[in-house]
């Protein structure tokens, strides 16, 4: 997958998540957001350099292949940052390794 394609998917996933958050806040349907987040079990996260605090979730993905592609693109875009690829609470990949 090309870097640009991965970034477009990342942006689309983040935009969709933001729309869902706004819709959930408006409607008060927390369970809808939780169900949608469970479907996207992989998350690509930006952490502080000590991995003590999550700064933000860069993207979420359904498949491990897509998650890895987004993770690699995030590493290239932010080489000085700590990026984690996680599935639930399990760390699948860490840019510090």
Describe the structure.
This protein has 97 residues and is an alpha+beta fold. It has one domain (3-94). It is 51% helix and 26% strand. The chain has helices at 3-27, 30-39, 64-77, and strands at residues 42-47, 54-61, 82-87, 90-94. It starts with a helix and ends with a strand.
Q: How much of the residues is beta strand, in percent?
A: 25-35%
Which bin fits the share of residues in helices?
40-55%
**What is the makeup of the main sheet?**
4 strands, antiparallel
The poorly predicted ranges are none
Return the structural class. alpha+beta
Give the rounded overall mean pLDDT: 79
Q: How many structurally independent domains?
A: 1
Between the first and last Cα atoms, what is the distance in angstroms? 22 Å
Query: Per the principal axes of the C-alpha atoms, what is the gross shape?
Result: globular
The total count of helices amounts to 3
> Total strand count, please?
4
Tell me the series of helices and strands, N- to C-terminal.
Answer: HHEEHEE
Q: Gyration radius, to the nearest Å?
A: 13 Å
Q: Tell me the strand order in the biggest sheet.
A: 2-1-3-4
Outline of the structure:
The protein has 97 residues and is α+β, with helices and mostly antiparallel strands. 51% of the residues lie in helices and 26% in strands.
Topology:
Blueprint: H1 3-27, H2 30-39, E1 42-47, E2 54-61, H3 64-77, E3 82-87, E4 90-94
Antiparallel strand pairs: 1-2, 1-3, 3-4
Helix pairs in contact: 1-3
């Amino acid at each position: 997958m090309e870097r640009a394609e991965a970034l477009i998917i990342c942006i689309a996933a983040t935009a969709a998540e933001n729309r869902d958050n706004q819709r959930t806040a408006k409607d008060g349907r927390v369970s809808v957001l939780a169900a949608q987040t469970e479907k996207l079990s992989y998350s690509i996260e930006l952490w502080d350099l000590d991995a003590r605090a999550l700064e933000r979730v860069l993207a979420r993905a359904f498949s491990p292949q897509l998650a890895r592609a987004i993770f690699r693109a995030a590493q290239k875009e932010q080489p000085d940052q700590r990026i984690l690829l996680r599935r639930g609470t399990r760390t699948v990949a860490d840019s510090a390794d």
